[in-house]
Amino acid sequence: MSLGKVVWTLCFLLVLGSSPMLLHDLVAIERSVRVTHGNGIWYDGRLATALLRLQLAIHSVVPDAASGAIPATARNEMGLLLRDVLDQVDAPPGTGGSEWRPLVADREAGMVEVRRALWGIDQVSRLLDVDPAAFRRIADARVEEAIVAHRRVSHAVMDRQNALVGVMQGGVDAFRLELLCYGVGFTVLLLSLGWLMRSHMLSEAGFRTSNRRLMDLRDDLTVARDTAMRAGETKSILLSNVSHELRTPLNAILGFSEALSSGIFGPLPVRQAEYVGDIHHAGQRLLALVNDVLDLAKLQAGKLELWEEVFDLKELAAEVLRDAEEAARAAGVTIGMEPGTGVVGVLGDRSRLRQALEKPLSNAIKFTPGGGRIGVSVGRLPDGRTRVTVTDTGIGVPAEDLGRVFLAFEQSDSQRARRGQGTGLGLPLARQLVERHGGVITMSSEPGVGTAVVVELPPSRAMPMGVGVDPPPARNLASSR
C-alpha cells in the first residue's frame, strides 16, 4: 500500500471517529480518487500503440519484387502483432474494487467492436499468400475500425473519470466547510487530501507525457507508412519505364526480322531463314512479356483505363478460340466452344477482357498433352452473374500450389513449371483485369485429370443485346479505387 493511501486511511479513521456525519462525504471522495488512478490510462496508451504498429505492418505488406511472395518474416511479424493486440484486448486493467465496475462495463462494451474488427483481420489472414493486395485492403479497413472503436472507448472512459473528478472536487469543497468545526482533524485531513491530489496531478502529468510520446510515435509510424507506399509506387514506375525502353529496340528487331523473312532484301538460305524465324519468334515472346509487365505495373499503380462498351462475351470467347487454333494444332490438342445459350451481352473493356481470357486458354494449351481436349463455355447464371469457364484435360496443379498461381512471377513447383515456358505473369494479369471489372477468377484442379479456370463478372456487368445502351465514358481505374 502506498504512503498516500496509508495517510488517507489514518485521516479517514480520525474524522470518522470525530463525527459520523462526515462518513457519506468521505466515502464519495475516497471512491472518486480511487477511480481516477492511472491503470486505465496506461492500458489505453499501450493498446493504441499496438494498434498503430499493426496498421503499419498491414500497410507494409508488399510482395517481394523478385519472387512475388510475401516474406516469411513479414507474415510472422503480422501474426505476432495481431496476437499481441488480441492479448491486450483480452487483458483489461484490474477493477480494484466495486467503484471500478461502471468503468469496466463501459470499456468491455466498447471492446466488443475492437475484438470483432481484429477477428476480421485474423479470418482473412489466409489471403496473405493468395492475394496480398486484397488482404491489405480488407485488413486496413478492419484495423481502422478497431482504432476508431478503441478511441471512442478511451474517450468515454476518460469522460467518466473526468466527471468523477468533478464530483470529487465538489465533495472536497463541501467537506472543507464542514471541517471548520473540527480543528486538528480538518488540518490533518486537508494535508492528506493534498497528498492524494498531488499524486493525482502527477499521474495526470505522466499521462500527458505518455500521450506526447504516443503522438510522436504515431508521426514516426505515419512517415514509415508513407515511405513504404512511395517505395511501391517507385517499383511500378521503374517497371513501366523499363518496359517502355525495351519496346523500341524490340519493335526494330521484329520489323527487320519480318522484312528479312518476307524476302524484301532477297531470298535467304534455308538455315538463315530458320535463324531469322527464331529471332522473330523470340522477339514476339519478349514483346508479349514486356507488354504484360507494363500492363501489370499500370494495374498495380491504378493507372490503367477501361474503355467500356456493350458486346457479346460469347462472340469474344469464340474469337479467342479461333486465334488459338494454330497453337492448339501444334500442341496436338483439340479446342472448342461448349454448347450453351445464345448471345451473352456484357459491359466492359473488350480488349482487356480478351487478355483475361487468352491467359488461361494459353496455359491450358501449354499444359495439356497431345490428344487432350480444351473446352470453353460462356453463360449467364440465375443470379445475373456472367461466367466463362476454361477446362482442360491437362496435367493439373497440386492442391498446395493453387494458392500461388495467381501471384506475379510465381509458377507451380510441379512438372507444369518444367513443361511450360513462361514467367508466371499470365494468370496474375488476368486476375487483375477481371477484378478491375468487379469480377473474380478462380482455379480448381486435380493432378492427372485436368484444370478448370472460372471467370465471373458481377450482375452489374450483364447487359441486354439489341437494346440501345450507350456505353459509359472511359474510366480511369485510379479514380475508381
TrEMBL record:
It comes from the Bacteria. The keyword Transferase applies. SUPFAM superfamilies: ATPase domain of HSP90 chaperone/DNA topoisomerase II/histidine kinase (SSF55874), Homodimeric domain of signal transducing histidine kinase (SSF47384). It is an enzyme of class 2 (transferase). Keywords: Kinase, Phosphoprotein, Transferase, Two-component regulatory system. GO terms for molecular function: phosphorelay sensor kinase activity. This is histidine kinase. It comes from Skermanella stibiiresistens SB22.
